[in-house]
Amino acid sequence: MVIEFINVTKTIKGHKVIDNVNVKFESGKIIGLKGINGSGKTMLMRLACGLILPSEGTISIDGKILGKDITFPESVGILIENPAFLDGYSGFKNLKMLASIKNEIGDEQIRETIRRVGLDPDDRRPYRKYSLGMKQRLGIAAAIMEKPDIVLLDEPTNSLDISGVELLKDILRQERQRGALIIISSHDLDILQEVSDEIHVMERGRLVDHIVMEGPDKGVDK
Ligand SMILES: Nc1ncnc2c1ncn2[C@@H]1O[C@H](COP(=O)(O)OP(=O)(O)OP(=O)(O)O)[C@@H](O)[C@H]1O
């Protein structure tokens, strides 16, 4: 699986929020996007999954151009900004509703994913009673439950406590092992350095630096 951006620019209300980006992301890697607030990380992720289309240039998934050959990537899990869950439903019921769209996974896989993010599948409390960290964990669960080829996580460490961050790091490594292409954004360089195989630094809608990480844990050594 390859996502390729060629000369991609996105202009919103006369403002270049993404400015001539050329980049290739490949399966089996954790790609970190680093940048301050407003640098364009969320926009890049929205573009990568077809939620918005470029004003100029092309984005392709395995050679198929988004907005032309395909509307969305076939298999993608997304956590971008606040996950949209139903307040009155439990975590399990929310995930079950989302899973019913594709109808690819059963109850046990949903329960297993809820456990993976450190929540209790038998917790009957409605989503509105969840803490911020629990909401974030459920959002991560929704993104990975169907074992998608592409996993996009925008600031996944937001609201997570230390144990949540550790859990997320394990999940990211397991997802890479499975062969997924994972893109995560963060303003926290330490976390990105720990898990990423590559880090792209964004500034004012541009990719200004590309760091390839090395180490026993990194995909580049495999
Ligand atoms: N709906 C919109 N209309 C106009 N400009 C927008 C809109 N949404 C975002 N922008 C602008 O796009 C730029 C990139 O925003 P983006 O949300 O991608 O940044 P980010 O790196 O994800 O920041 P953060 O860390 O704050 O989430 C910013 O300058 C922002 O003001």
TrEMBL record:
Entries under Pfam families matching the protein: ABC_tran
Domain named ABC transporter: residues: 3-222
A molecular function GO annotation: ATP binding
Keywords: ATP-binding, Nucleotide-binding, Transport
Residues spanning the signal sequence: none
Record InterPro entries: AAA+_ATPase (IPR003593), ABC_transporter-like_ATP-bd (IPR003439), ABC_transporter-like_CS (IPR017871), P-loop_NTPase (IPR027417)
Annotated SUPFAM superfamilies: P-loop containing nucleoside triphosphate hydrolases (SSF52540)
Gene3D superfamilies in alphabetical order: P-loop containing nucleotide triphosphate hydrolases
Family in the record: Belongs to the ABC transporter superfamily.
Name of the protein in its database record: ABC-2 type transport system ATP-binding protein
